[in-house]
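Example: DUF1330 domain-containing protein.
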Amino acid sequence: MALYPFPSSEKERAMSAYVVFTRHKLTDPAEFKAYTEGVGKTFEGHSARLLAVYGNQVNLEGTEPDGVVIIEFPDVKAARAWYDSPAYQAVAQHRRNAAVYDVVIVEGAPAS
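Written out as structure tokens, the predicted fold is:
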């Protein structure tokens, strides 16, 4: 599911980066609702594609997370530009107040 224009050629997508949000515990549903209502607008002006959003999961090892979100960006620089943007950081405060998360950027091959 594309959010905004995303490079289509393999050359443009060769250095994709994935922001992975792993939620471990929801602590404040009202704050989480504020986050989910505001986060979509933070992608404006950024090339991003949602690959997974709290879908069904099969835990293979370790502690099962409460939910996982994976967002694809053209590269690490683009992922950081979105994550560090004032728009996202303003909304991210709701996520931080709402739940316990781990967030990482992983470089890898583009999704097919």
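The chain has a mean pLDDT of 90.
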